[in-house]
Amino acid sequence: MNYYLRQNICLGVFLTGCGISYAQLAAVKTNALLWGNLTPNISMELVTAPRFSLEGTVFYGLNKTPLNAQLKGAQAEIRYWISGRPMARSFVGLSVSGVRYTVTHKGTTHLGEAAGPGLTYGYAWPLSKHFNLEFSAGVGAMWYREKKYPEGTVPMQEEYNANGMKCVPTEIAVSCCYLF
């Protein structure tokens, strides 16, 4: 009985996806602003419908950075292309981010992790058939927990001593994109 149920569910999912099919468009990109902080990153974007695309980003910061901010994390985003043409012109996005960070600011080191949703607005500027320049910015609500301690010392306690939620920038990007 279970076999037939699974078989019918798989057939239903297959038939549901057989409606209108769209040419797949994909892009690989990197954020130049993160590279400025010595944070290697890569993103992959895939068009899933006439006005929608999905993007996934991963980044991993090096130990010594110009801004004293080491970031490691990932972000997923669904984008709605206002112009109707994916990967060209204006878009709005809904994202979810997760990050581990070590930031030194005004004599205090913050070592922690944060996660939460965000909203993004951006513009993709086509330069040629295969290259785009993309500008985007976003804000979101990030729930965090961290260890705060004076700069230059090592925290004695294993527990987090600060937590909460803040509205913060979740994305500031100038990305170089290659479209397939």
Mean pLDDT: 88
Strand arrangement in the largest pleated sheet: 1-2-3-4-5-6-7-8
* Content of β-strand: over 45%
Order of helices and strands: HEHEEEEEEE
Continuous helix count: 2
Coarse morphology: globular
**Quick one: biggest sheet?**
8 strands, antiparallel, barrel
Structural class determined from secondary elements: mainly beta
- Poorly predicted spans: 15-19
Assembly level: single chain
- Our Rg estimate from Cα atoms comes to 20 Å
Number of E strands: 8
Separation of termini?
44 Å
* Helix content bin: 10-25%
Tag the structure with descriptive keywords.
about 180 residues; mainly beta; 8-stranded antiparallel barrel
Structural write-up:
With 180 residues, this protein is mainly β. It is built from two helices and eight strands. It has helices at residues 2-16, 32-36, and strands at residues 26-31, 41-49, 52-60, 69-81, 89-105, 108-126, 131-150, 162-179. The protein has an eight-stranded antiparallel beta barrel with strand order 1-2-3-4-5-6-7-8. Strand 3 (52-60) and strand 4 form a beta hairpin. The longest helix is centred in the N-terminal third of the chain and has 15 residues, at 2-16. The model is unreliable at 15-19 (pLDDT under 50).
